[in-house]
Design goal:
Mean pLDDT: 92
CATH topology: Rieske Iron-sulfur Protein
Radius of gyration: 13 Å
Low-confidence stretches: none
Shape: globular
Structural class: mainly beta
Largest sheet: 4 strands, antiparallel
């Protein structure tokens, strides 16, 4: 539920390979699929790291270190009845 997501925190939903983050009062939802070759990134030091080839991404999804060249995919979502619904398409 949205009310359970505290400021400057997030939740990883492994079965969907997504991260939902709340920072500065804003919600961001990212795919955990690395933009290099599609491995699933892991949360690490306030960002994400790819266990396959070492790409690093900030908490904003932007590339900090390659070989990935593109940011993590930002996913669309909507909020209804205090719940976050994410579009996986």
């Amino acid at each position: 539920m949205l009310s359970e997501l505290k400021e400057n925190s997030g939740v990883i939903i492994e079965e969907l390979n997504i991260a939902i983050l709340k920072k500065d009062g804003k919600i961001k939802v990212y795919s955990l699929k690395c933009t290099h070759l599609g491995c699933i990134v892991k949360f690490y030091n306030d960002g994400f790291i790819c266990p396959c080839h070492g790409s690093e991404f900030g908490s904003d999804g932007e590339v900090l270190k390659g070989p990935a060249l593109k940011a993590l995919k930002s996913l669309n979502y909507r909020i209804k009845n205090n719940k976050i619904y994410v579009s996986l398409i």
